[in-house]
Specification:
Length: about 100
């Protein structure tokens, strides 16, 4: 999309008519701040992605990893909600312990 001088002048005239000459500097300042914040946030996202990729590459072990612990089937529907929650918590604790054991040399 190429904007020539006539189109730019038309856009500026429309802005002056819509917002008034006194509010245009405030409007431009607000747009500039918004763009600055947007650029900062997108660069943080890119930095976070780069950091995640670097840690994933470094975290790969050289030896063959141990097979993950077997997951049990979903709790039977006849169990109460408390019993299901307790079984899931036990399973999560076992998975955490196995993950920590894999991290140790």
């Amino acid at each position: 999309m190429n904007l020539g001088p006539p189109e730019i002048i038309l856009i500026l005239v429309a802005l002056v008519l819509l917002f008034g000459a006194k509010k245009l500097p405030d409007l431009a300042r607000g747009v500039g701040r918004s763009l600055r914040i947007f650029k900062a946030e997108t660069s943080k996202l890119n930095d976070d992605d780069d950091d995640n990729k670097a840690t994933v590459v470094q975290a790969q072990p050289q030896a063959q990893p141990a097979p993950p612990p077997q997951l049990h089937a979903a709790p039977a529907p006849e169990l109460s909600a408390e019993e299901q929650a307790r079984k899931l918590e036990e399973q999560a604790a076992r998975l955490r312990a196995a993950a920590q054991a894999d991290k140790r040399p």
